[in-house]
Structure formats: structure tokens, C-alpha cells
């Protein structure tokens, strides 16, 4: 869905890399080099994925929970993310800070992240520390101990995180309002970090109740990438996670569904600090989980042709040919449990109005809807996307991230592995059909970021 | 990690192999990853790590002279020029150039820094010839087509307009401008709203002609390529550059404005705080001790003093950290945080207190031991992609640490004593801080009303009503 929030600001996964693109099992010369990925399930329900990568004696250990902000109770927004922060507060066996101390002492990296659909924790450590990481992570799966002393400062930290990511940033504030307008009924309309007034009310008891409801081996996926065999991963997982009992039964993730959307929406955010206006639009479209076969892949190619990079239709039309915008683009991220969004945007040059930009965007979309994409565009987009999958093999953490995010949103290892093959067979007709079907303004929200020119005393 | 260093000797008919070293930390299971120093037939040196696991090639390089070579009255020339290198070159206009990159999934980018121009290339092995050709064209035959120049200029101006109201950018710009008045480091790398419209194609060509040259280049290649092929490609790509750069000398400078605090009002709920003072030169014998001290103070882990005091104990900020910055003509310790208005004063006090306390008392033995094991272990873990390895190998060359540095690094850390860190903590942290704050912090004011040395264009977006 959207870019996950991380616990430390330092970590940034490339946003487009999360776009469901995956590993090459048969992409050109990488065929023989793609890792053999093993997937199994322990008796307690924990899924285990091993991605061997023997280039360096290190491992990336990730534990994913199939719970995110879209699984929160209405009125408690931000709880999934707040709990993610609190998982660092210690257990009875490993009191506050001990896990992080051990990771730091060996020079390891660690962090955690939360999205609408999942919450993940990871460490990168030398391979001989893998079992120790598993022991710590298995311990905090059910052993979390929270005191008000630890919880209260952390709530303030999260409020500062909200300030940093959203309140201080007019474009981010507009993004929140657009999501809320795009989703009439589905919880993807809530910010992952939560609405500020609801974050302020979160507390220890609610966090623990949420924890007990969702943190259980049968709701988790272990992903280990690195210098280790699938057999070792399985054995170590059995010795550590295997001892954690199921503590909750998990119901299917049946979130409220969107009604038929009938009206194009617009939202405007005015802020005195806006010096560079912009316009963007989100369309409600299927994700890889909700799409018909081939449809998500066609949307992926469509997003690419429309708006990735300097060759894209939008950049070419608005920035190069018409010269009315400083930037323009599009993106689609299919990695979500429920219907997701395809977004387009444009940033005007001085002297160009937002309606002019919007009109030019509409013309580009209308052209693709009418005439589809060219053979050359299709070929270039596919080459680029399939190469992404090969490049992904160069980053252990990214591979683990892709598998984890995909599995946590309903994909299988086989589907992930075969992603380049599915991209390869996307036809120009399929891309055009996807554009016709899904670029429907009635299922969209258009957002305007503008300068607030009212005198200061009149602003709220 | 204790991976034994393996020294291998190989010879190749087409290149002169001068030195060998083992990249012990990133050693693959099959054996050590060897760093080869290759010299191309044309005499250009590169460090090479051959790794055939994946069909990729990663190249990183740097050349001396970038934003520091901007005309004093025209900051932003190097930045704009650098951005235009892949906007049309040789026979290809911008669109054709980008189409070729995308069609072969070649990733090519350039960055203008304060001291160095840097480039990155990533390609599938099968496309290496086209990838290096496009790199050559970008470096030697950039077109500067009028349309591309105006497009890039508009993009830089758009970014600059955003920066004038972004608290992070404002705090950082103010810090650098105040610390380095009348010096290239005090001028923004990407220019100003006033300077960028005046930059001409001649300005850009002149700067590139002086800076892009063979004698300052540092190169590293990682991936599925052998030394002979690498040598040939290096010559084809970089051989046509001028032999020698003609750089304007940049004087050494120590950061100014220590002890000052500058508050720039902006109507945002969270105040952004930048702080910093003198650091330590990379070639200083005390560098490693200072590196350990910095890690303990506010380096990048969940266990630093600043993280513990500001975030963990009091919840005052989401992030707080500091790092050593070494440039060719100065050395710094700089850090930042962001906190709510009513806690800004307290947060700054805590940071200053922790810096003072570490200067006076030095680290504890436990902190010292843990910092050492962290710094030894984290190095390898950070080198997790081919481009990161190549980038680190370029940095080692720029820092003149030697091709065996990767091997020696752990012993350099081990050689530092607790007494060293106590002595260096005093030296490093006793110099006073320049602090810039952007926001509406309660009760925090400029030490000198922010008049002296505070650049005029900061007054404009100060949160006062802008348009009437």
C-alpha cells in the first residue's frame, strides 16, 4: 500500500521498489543465479521463508505480522504503529533495551516498520547471530511487558514523528486528506500513523489488547535472507519460534468494503508555506490481491508508461513538449490486501495554473484510454521492470522486503517468483483495457496544494 | 566477524596489478572478495572487486572540484551542470538519451557535492558496452540544449522555492552560511533563487572543463567483469577527458559563529534544530578515537547518549543524531533534531549538557567497549549492495587510507584506548556549538537577534504573512 513508517528515520526503502516487483527466476541471464526460495509452515502456524544469498557472511532476519493500520478498531487509529514502537520496550526475559543492546554491540542493524497491511521487525547481523536474533524475536512475540513509564514517553515520540512526517509538511497533510476522501468506507482512508487526536488518546492497555489479538505465530511470517541454508533456517526456527504457542485465532481480514464510487472528489489544501503548488489524483484500482488475473500486472505497466521517469507519457507531455510543468509522473503499488491506488501528479511552472496542469494530465490519460501504448513503450517498460527484479538480487534486505510484503498481503512465494514472467506477457491491449476500465474519474480524488494567501489572523 | 584475510595474487596480461587486498568483511562463502588495483592501458587506476554471482556491474567514481568551484557570485553552477549531463549528450537529445538508458535498464546518475563530483552507474552485464558509452557521452559531449537547460533550471528553481519554506532546509542553510561566511562552503550547493536564473551555458561548460579530468578521478567497479575488460572500458569512457584539472584553490577554514544561536521564525508545529562545531580531519591520528566518541554521543544506533536522553527517556523527539563530517578544507561535528515548540529549549539544553558532560568526563569503559564492537561489526553490514561496496572503495581512495584499509580497519579501532577517547572527547567537544532553529520555539531566541550574518533571504519566508 503506502510507504511504511519506520521506527528510525534513517531507513528508506526505495518506494518504487515496494511496488510489488519481485525476484527474477527466469529473467534473462539471471535465471541460473536467482536464489532457491524455500517456504514452509511450522506446526504453530508460523510461515517460514528462506532466501539463500551466500555473497557475504551476514543474514537479514525479518519477522512480519499480518496486521497493519487497516486492522485497527475505528477510533483507535495509529495503534498498530504505536505498538510497533512499544515492541522495543522489553519482555520479562529481556528487559527494556536488551535486544537493541545486543544488536548494537555486534554492530548489527535493526528497525521496524508499519503499513496499512503489515508490521515488520528486522535485524541484519553476522550469520552466527541468527539464532540469537530468533530467540529475541520469538520472545517478544508474546512476552512483551509494558509499563506506563515506558509507554508515555514513547507516545510523545510518536507525536513528534507525526509532526515531522505530516504536520510540518503541507504536501503530506494533503496526502492524508486525499486518502480519506478516496476511501469512502475502507480503513485505508486512515493514516498509518493515525489521526493526531486519536494518537494522543492511545494507551498501554489498548496497545496490549491489540498485541494479544494479533501477535501470534499463526499470524506471522519469518523471512530470512542471507548466508544460510533453508534447512538451517527451518531448524533454527523450530528451536526458537517453534516453542511459541498460538495465543490467538486469526479471523480473515474482512475489512469494510467500498461502495460503488459515483462521484469524482476534489480536495484543496491551502497553506501559507506553499511556494510550489501541485495537483495530484488518486484512482481507486485493484491490488495484486483483488485484481483479475493479469490486471494488476497491466496496471503496473500502465503506471510505468504513464509516469516513471523522463520517458514517461506525463513527463514527456507536460514537462518536455508543453513545457508547462517542472515535474510530472505516476505510480501504482499493487502490494495491498484490498483495492489500492494509482496516482498521477504534476507540478506547474510559474505562470501555469493547476487547472491547466490538470487538463494536460487528462489529455494524456484520454490518449492512453483511446489508443493504448506503443509497442516500443511496452517493450522499454517491461525491460526496465524485469531488470528491477534482477537488480533486487543485489540487495538482501530488498529481497526479504519484497517477499515479506507480498506474502503479508496475500501472495504466494510462487506468485512472487513468477512476477517477471507475468510482466513479460502483458499485452498492449491489456494495458489499454486497464486504463479504460480503471482510469474513471468517478472513482478518484483530485488534490490541490495551493498557497494560502489570506492574512495570518484569518487563518485557522 | 573474524573472516581471515586472504591475499591472492593474480596477474593479467592487459593490466598492471599493483597491490592486492582482501575485503575480509564482505567475504563470500566461497572465499575472500579480493580488491584489485587495476591500471588501465591508458594509465587510469581503478579498484575492482570481481563477483560473478549476479549478472551486474556497479561503477562509482569521483573527481575533485564541484560546488567549491562555483563562481563566488553564482552558486549553483556545478549543481545545474551536473544535472544536465544526462539531459542529452552526443547524438542524443534528452529524450533519446533517456530512452536508451531505460530500454537497457541502465541506471546512471551524477551528483555535485561540496568537494567532489560523483557518478554512479549500474548495468546488467550484457549491456555494459552501451552503459559505458552513454557515460562517456555524458561526461565528454553533454549538449546543453536550450530546452533542456531551461527545463533543469525550472526544476532547480522549483526545489529552491520549496526550500525557502522547508524548516529542515532553512535550518541547514542558515547553519552553513553562518559557519562559513565568504567561503565556498557557506554557499548553497544548489544555488539561490537569485543566482540560478543568471547561470549561463558558458558558466557550466567552463566549470566542467576545469573540473572533469583524469588526474583526480577515483574509480571503483564491483561485479561480473574481469580486469582486462574493465581496463578497456575505463579507457574508452574516461580516456578522452583532459589530463589535468585546473582547480581554483579553496582556503582552509574553521567553522565560525560558535556559541551563537540563530532562531528563524516559521509557522510550523515542530521546530527543527541543527547544531555543530569543529570536527576532526580524516588524516588526524586521533580520527578513530573521535569516531568512537561521536558514536557514543549521537551516532546511528538506538543506544547513543543523545538518543537515550532526548528520545527514550523524555520522548522529546523522534530522531536525534550527530555525525563527523570531513571535507577537504574543514572538519565538523554536526547534528540535528526536531521537537515541539514547548520542548525546544529543554531539548537544546539536554544536547548541550550531554556534549559538555562527554567532553568533561569522557566515555565509560562499558560504552567504550560496546562502541568498538559496534563500529567493527557494522562496517561489513553496511556494505550490502554492489554499489555500496564500490562507493566505499571510492571513499577509501579519496580519504587516502590505502587499499588494505578494509583489512586494517579493525586493528585501528582496537588500537584506540579509553584514555585516548577521554582526551579526544575534550578536544572534539569543547569547541562550542553553532545552533540554528527554525520554527516557533517557546522562549528560545537568537543570541544576537539573528541580525549579524543572518542572510537576508531567510527573513522572507519567516512565517510572517507572505502575500497580502
Structural summary, described in words:
The complex is a heterodimer of chains A (460) and B (468). Chain A has 460 residues and is an alpha+beta fold. Chain A is built from 16 helices and twelve strands. Chain A has helices at residues 79-86, 98-105, 130-142, 148-167, 170-182, 196-199, 204-214, 230-239, 295-307, 313-321, 354-371, 375-392, 396-408, 413-417, 419-424, 428-438, and strands at 5-6, 38-41, 47-52, 58-65, 109-114, 119-126, 220-226, 265-271, 278-285, 325-332, 340-348, 444-451. In chain A, helix 1 (79-86) packs across helix 7 (204-214), helix 9 (295-307) crosses helix 16 and helix 10 packs across helix 11 (354-371). Chain A is globular. Chain A starts with a strand and ends in a 9-residue tail after the last strand. Chain B is an alpha+beta fold and 468 residues long. Chain B contains 15 helices and 14 strands. In chain B, the strands form three sheets. Chain B has a seven-stranded mixed beta sheet, sandwiched between helices. Chain B has a five-stranded mixed beta sheet with strand order 10-14-11-13-12, with helices on both faces. Chain B has a two-stranded antiparallel sheet with strand order 5-6. In chain B, a hairpin with a 3-residue loop joins strand 7 and strand 8. In chain B, helix 1 crosses helix 6 (201-211), helix 3 runs parallel beside helix 7 (227-238) and helix 8 (287-298) packs across helix 11. The longest helix of chain B has 18 residues, at 146-163. Chain B is globular, with a radius of gyration of 24 Å. Residues 1-31 and 449-468 of chain B have low confidence and may be disordered.
Amino acid at each position: 500500500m503506502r510507504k511504511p513508517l519506520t521506527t528510525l528515520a534513517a531507513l528508506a526503502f526505495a518506494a518504487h521498489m515496494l511496488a510489488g516487483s519481485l525476484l527474477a527466476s527466469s529473467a534473462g541471464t539471471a535465471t541460473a543465479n536467482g536464489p532457491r526460495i524455500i517456504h514452509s509452515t511450522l506446526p504453530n502456524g508460523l510461515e517460514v521463508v528462506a532466501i539463500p544469498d551466500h555473497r557475504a557472511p551476514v543474514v537479514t532476519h525479518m519477522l512480519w505480522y499480518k496486521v497493519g493500520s487497516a486492522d485497527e478498531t475505528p477510533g483507535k487509529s495509529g495503534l498498530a504503529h504505536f505498538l510497533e514502537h512499544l515492541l522495543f520496550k522489553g519482555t520479562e526475559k529481556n528487559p527494556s533495551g536488551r535486544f537493541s543492546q545486543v544488536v548494537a554491540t555486534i554492530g548489527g542493524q535493526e528497525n521496524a516498520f508499519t503499513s496499512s497491511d503489515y508490521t515488520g521487525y528486522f535485524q541484519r547481523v553476522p550469520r552466527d547471530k541468527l539464532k540469537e536474533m530468533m530467540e529475541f524475536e520469538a520472545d517478544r512475540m508474546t512476552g512483551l511487558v509494558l509499563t506506563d513509564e515506558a509507554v508515555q514517553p514513547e507516545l510523545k515520540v510518536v507525536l513528534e514523528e507525526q509532526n515531522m512526517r505530516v504536520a510540518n509538511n503541507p504536501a503530506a497533510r494533503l496526502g492524508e486528506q486525499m486518502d480519506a476522501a478516496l476511501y469512502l468506507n475502507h480503513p485505508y482512508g486512515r493514516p498509518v500513523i493515525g489521526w493526531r487526536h486519536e494518537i494522543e488518546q492511545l494507551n498501554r492497555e489498548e496497545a496490549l489488547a491489540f498485541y494479544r489479538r494479533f501477535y501470534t505465530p499463526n499470524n506471522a511470517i519469518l523471512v530470512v535472507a542471507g548466508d544460510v541454508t533453508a534447512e538451517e533456517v527451518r531448524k533454527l526456527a523450530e528451536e526458537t519460534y517453534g516453542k511459541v504457542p498460538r495465543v490467538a485465532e486469526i479471523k480473515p481480514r474482512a475489512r469494510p468494503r467500498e461502495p460503488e464510487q459515483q462521484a469524482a472528489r476534489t480536495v484543496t489544501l491551502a497553506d501559507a508555506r506553499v511556494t510550489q503548488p501541485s495537483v495530484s489524483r488518486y484512482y481507486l484500482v485493484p491490488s495484486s490481491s483483488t485484481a483479475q488475473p493479469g490486471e494488476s500486472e497491466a496496471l503496473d505497466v500502465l503506471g510505468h508508461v504513464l509516469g516513471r521517469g523522463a520517458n514517461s507519457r506525463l513527463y514527456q507531455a507536460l514537462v518536455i513538449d508543453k513545457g508547462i510543468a517542472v515535474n510530472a509522473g505516476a505510480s501504482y503499488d499493487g502490494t495491498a490486501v484490498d483495492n489500492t491506488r494509482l496516482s498521477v501528479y504534476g507540478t506547474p511552472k510559474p505562470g501555469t495554473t493547476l487547472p491547466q496542469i490538470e487538463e494536460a494530465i487528462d489529455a494524456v490519460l484520454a490518449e492512453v484510454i483511446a489508443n493504448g501504448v506503443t509497442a516500443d513503450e511496452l517493450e522499454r517498460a517491461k525491460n526496465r521492470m524485469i531488470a528491477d527484479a534482477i537488480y533486487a538480487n543485489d540487495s538482501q534486505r530488498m529481497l526479504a522486503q519484497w517477499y515479506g510484503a507480498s506474502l503479508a498481503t496475500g501472495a504466494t512465494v510462487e506468485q512472487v517468483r513468477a512476477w517477471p514472467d507475468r510482466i513479460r506477457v502483458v499485452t498492449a491491449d491489456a494495458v489499454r483495457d486497464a486504463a479504460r476500465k480503471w482510469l474513471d474519474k468517478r472513482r478518484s480524488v483530485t488534490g490541490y496544494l495551493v498557497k494560502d494567501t489570506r492574512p495570518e489572523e484569518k487563518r485557522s | 566477524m573474524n573472516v581471515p584475510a586472504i591475499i591472492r595474487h593474480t596477474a593479467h596480461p592487459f593490466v598492471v596489478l599493483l597491490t592486492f587486498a582482501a575485503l575480509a568483511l564482505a567475504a563470500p562463502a566461497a572465499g575472500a572478495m579480493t580488491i584489485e588495483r587495476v591500471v588501465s592501458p591508458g594509465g587510469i587506476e581503478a579498484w575492482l572487486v570481481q563477483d560473478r554471482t549476479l549478472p551486474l556491474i556497479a561503477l562509482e567514481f569521483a573527481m575533485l572540484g564541484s560546488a567549491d568551484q562555483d563562481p563566488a557570485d553564482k552558486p549553483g553552477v556545478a549543481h545545474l551542470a551536473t544535472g544536465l549531463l544526462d539531459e542529452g549528450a552526443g547524438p542524443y537529445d534528452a529524450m533519446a538519451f533517456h530512452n536508451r538508458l531505460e530500454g537497457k535498464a541502465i541506471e546512471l546518475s551524477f551528483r555535485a557535492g561540496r568537494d567532489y563530483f560523483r557518478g554512479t552507474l549500474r548495468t546488467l552485464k550484457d549491456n555494459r558496452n552501451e552503459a559505458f558509452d552513454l557515460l562517456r557521452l555524458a561526461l565528454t559531449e553533454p549538449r546543453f540544449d536550450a530546452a533542456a537547460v531551461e527545463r533543469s533550471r525550472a526544476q532547480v528553481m522549483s526545489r529552491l522555492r520549496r526550500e525557502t519554506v522547508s524548516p529542515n532546509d532553512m535550518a541547514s542553510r542558515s547553519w552553513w552560511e553562518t559557519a562559513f561566511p565568504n567561503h565556498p562552503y557557506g554557499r548553497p550547493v544548489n544555488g539561490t533563487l537569485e543566482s540560478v536564473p543568471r547561470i549561463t551555458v558558458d558558466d557550466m561548460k567552463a566549470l566542467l572543463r576545469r573540473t572533469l579530468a583524469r588526474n583526480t578521478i577515483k574509480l571503483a567497479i564491483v561485479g561480473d567483469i574481469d580486469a582486462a575488460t574493465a581496463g578497456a572500458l575505463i579507457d574508452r569512457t574516461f580516456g578522452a577527458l583532459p589530463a589535468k584539472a585546473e582547480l581554483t584553490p579553496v582556503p582552509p577554514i574553521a567553522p565560525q559563529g560558535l556559541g551563537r544561536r540563530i532562531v528563524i521564525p516559521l509557522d510550523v508545529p515542530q521546530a527543527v534544530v541543527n547544531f555543530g562545531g569543529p570536527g576532526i580531519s580524516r588524516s588526524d591520528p586521533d580520527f578513530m578515537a573521535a569516531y568512537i566518541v561521536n558514536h557514543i554521543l549521537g551516532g546511528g544506533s538506538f543506544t547513543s547518549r543523545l538518543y537515550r536522553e532526548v528520545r527514550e527517556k523524555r520522548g522529546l523527539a523522534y530522531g536525534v543524531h550527530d555525525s563527523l563530517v570531513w571535507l577537504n578544507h574543514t572538519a565538523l561535528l554536526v547534528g540535528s533534531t526536531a521537537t515541539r515548540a514547548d520542548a525546544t529549549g529543554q531539548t537544546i539544553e539536554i544536547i548541550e549538557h550531554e556534549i559538555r558532560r562527554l567532553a568533561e568526563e569522557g566515555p565509560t569503559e562499558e560504552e567504550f567497549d560496546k562502541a568498538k564492537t559496534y563500529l567493527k561489526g557494522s562496517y561489513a553490514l553496511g556494505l550490502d549492495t554492489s554499489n555500496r561496496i564500490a562507493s566505499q572503495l571510492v571513499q577509501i581512495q579519496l580519504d587516502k587510507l590505502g587499499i588494505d584499509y578494509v583489512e586494517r580497519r579493525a586493528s585501528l579501532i582496537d588500537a584506540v584506548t579509553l584514555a585516548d577517547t577521554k582526551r579526544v572527547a575534550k578536544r572534539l567537544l569543547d569547541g562550542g556549538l553553532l545552533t540554528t532553529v527554525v520554527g516557533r520555539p517557546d522562549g528560545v531566541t537568537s543570541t544576537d537577534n539573528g541580525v549579524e550574518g543572518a542572510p537576508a533571504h531567510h527573513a522572507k519566508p519567516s512565517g510572517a504573512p507572505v502575500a497580502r
